[in-house]
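Page 42, continued from yesterday. The earlier attempt failed because a stray header line got pasted into the input along with the sequence. Redoing it now with the clean sequence only.
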Amino acid sequence: MTKRIEGSLSAAGMQIGIVTTRWNEVVTERLLKGALDCLRTLGASADDLTIVTVPGAFEIPVVLRELASSKNYDGLIALGAVIRGDTPHFDYVAGEAASGIARVALETGVPCGFGLLTVDSSEQALERAGLKSGNKGWEAAQTVVETASLLKQLREG
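This time it went through. Structure tokens are written below.
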């Protein structure tokens, strides 16, 4: 018989760390609200959530790595917004932050929900932070809960 393993959408008892940026705060506060709303909806307790604020997106990976290395978290969520400007700065920050987030998850085995917006305008950022269709903070939280649940099942055999 074929065995099928899927994660659940219950955050009850999960320790979740959220790393959010102060840069583009009008956007990141909306992302954070979406993530927290999702986690509460999925049964997370406020006592099981830790929010860490970093200056900008470039700093997200090092803080995620520190949290993951503590072995205190079932999952982590990265929230930020990098908005394209007139210089190549966007490409470096967005690319390095994104690859750093992925690297932390792969190297530590702690799932990292990807709520880092990389957009062309403030309007696009606000749309993805809940003004139009959905909230990427919510989506990142939901994804990390499901992935953490799945990994727990795989590790328990």
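Notes: The first strand starts at residue 16 and ends at 21.
Reminder to self: strip header lines before submitting.
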